[in-house]
Amino acid sequence: DAGITQSPRHKVTETGTPVTLRCHQTENHRYMYWYRQDPGHGLRLIHYSYGVKDTDKGEVSDGYSVSRSKTEDFLLTLESATSSQTSVYFCAISEIILDRGNYGYTFGSGTRLTVV
Amino acid sequence: DAKTTQPNSMESNEEEPVHLPCNHSTISGTDYIHWYRQLPSQGPEYVIHGLTSNVNNRMASLAIAEDRKSSTLILHRATLRDAAVYYCILRDPIYSGGGADGLTFGKGTHLIIQP
What is the CA radius of gyration of chain B? Predict the structure, then answer.
């Protein structure tokens, strides 16, 4: 168990308000990720981090920012939430647990965000 | 990541074997075939991976065609707990940033298990 905790598990917020989702891991993994999952689109990568203060954009990064000031925490912020950001958000970590340099990914249980 | 094609859904009966196909005709020689599954209301979880030879683990078996253009995930005796969306993903550990730049998910196969 990679010890990934996402908080909150559920949140309802109003359009235009800022929202921060937290991903916490307990095993000092270097790589962390934020995905969103929507019907008809599947899972899409928002941002990822390859170390403290080192982050990069994924496929659907517009409207999102991230921060990683400590190894164990990866924060996803919606500066001004919109209804199109209603989704289920998953955090993940990766580590070389497989052979030949293959990374295995472990996902959290998700945060269901509703923007009204 | 190279493209994979999977059926949208499959149905099987409990306690019977399930064969989930994946086509990847543009696979490169260094692409590994990974399978993940996503149970209802949970995040995806790793199932199995392989390069050329067939692979077995406690969850499933992976059968890879000789030309590597297709593969099959085999659940030997499906239970209701195996009802999930199964994703077939190709990853090159050398050319994908060491494999740490995130997984690219397709739509997967929605496996329905009938009691």
Answer: 14
**Amino acid of residue B25:** S
**Residues A22-72 pLDDT 10s:** 999 998 999 999 999 998 788 999 999 999 999 999 999 999 999 999 999
- Token pair listed for B13: 């009966």
The residues on A that touch B, with CB distances below 8 Å, are 30-31, 33, 35, 42-45, 48, 50, 56, 58-59, 90, 92, 94, 96, 98, 100-110
The answer on pLDDT for B95 being more than 70 is: no
Contacts by residues B58-62 (CB-CB < 8 Å, ≥ 24 positions apart): B60/B35, B62/B33, B62/B35
pLDDT at residue B82 tops 90: yes
Cβ contact (<8 Å) for B108 and A110? no
By C-alpha distance, the chain B residue nearest A29 is B100
Q: What are φ and ψ of residue B99, in 5° steps?
A: 85, 10
Is A104 close to B36, i.e. CB distance below 8 A?
A: no
E-assigned strands of chain B? 9-13, 18-23, 32-38, 45-50, 55-56, 61-64, 70-75, 84-91, 109-114
More confident residue, A97 or A64: A64
Task: Please give the distance of CA A52 from its chain centroid, rounded to a whole number.
Answer: 15
